[in-house]
Amino acid sequence: MHREALKKYFDFPSGVPSHDTYQRLWDNLCSNQFRECFGAFVESLQKITSDIMNIDEKTIRNSSSNKPLHRVSAWCYKNKMVFAQENVNEKSNEIKAIPKLLKLLDLENKIITINAMGAQRDMCQKIVERKGDYGISLKGNQGTLFEDVKLFLSELNNHEFINENNDKGHGRIEQRVAVVSHHTKWLNDIHQWPGLKSIGRITSTVLRKGKESKDTQYYISSKLLSAFELNEIARQHWEIENQLHWVLDVVFNEDKACIRNDCAAKNLDILRKWALTILHKSKDKPENSIKSIMRKNSMYFKHLIHCVNTILHG
């Protein structure tokens, strides 16, 4: 539809590429090299401006011919960007993929947040050695450590810092109460956890349509956190689901792509994140949604070029 306008930027010696041409491209393009190109683009576009980096995994349903593609991504909430990602052969191998992902990042003076899967001594040790800090949630996979932190924080006298945060929106009211303690020497003596300096708990109470639900999460960190910082770290880690995974699923229809070629599935995953990065950076108003910008781009070629120029020639 925009062939005449596109001729200002590209030559079309054989006409407009067909669907099959694009299919052959994505099927045969080396996904590892394409991923490196994406990383170079992100690095040239913007450095990490936040001191918090969130790491989480996502499975792309209906992708690949054998089993769904599973990837671990490093996301920065303030930048609204994926800075690196790593393939995971199986969900159980996520522990092996995260250290590979960490090697791609500058960890100095950064707080790396990971879910309970990241509660591994070796992983935390590598983060501390590279002058970073970790903020990791605990579950039963670290049974004795989890139970000791839970029991210690159940005593009110052990709470050194307390912070309450309230959110309202999307038909719900949420209250998050964080408590933190820096008394960790006894835990280090028992568990010998690398660089452990803070333990904390966040109790979340959600009121929706007259029904109340509660959830409690426990955390360990190598930084002397305040309760406010713990609340902020937990909130930003949750945003990787809201700002990245939800957008990929709902706006980009990622789970409905049904791409069976393994190489193409990996490449299109990178391409969606590349597009999302550009869309976030081309926002001229915070209230504009990603979906509305995509709609304008598809309808008005000038708007599309404006978005591209905002990033590439900004």
Automatic annotation (TrEMBL):
Protein's recorded name: Transposase IS4-like domain-containing protein
Origin superkingdom: Bacteria
Pfam entry (one): DDE_Tnp_1
NCBIfam families in alphabetical order: transpos_ISAs1
PANTHER family from the UniProt entry: H REPEAT-ASSOCIATED PREDICTED TRANSPOSASE, PROTEIN YBFL-RELATED
GO BP, sorted A to Z: DNA transposition
Gene Ontology MF, one: DNA binding
Annotated ranges, domain Transposase IS4-like: 67-277
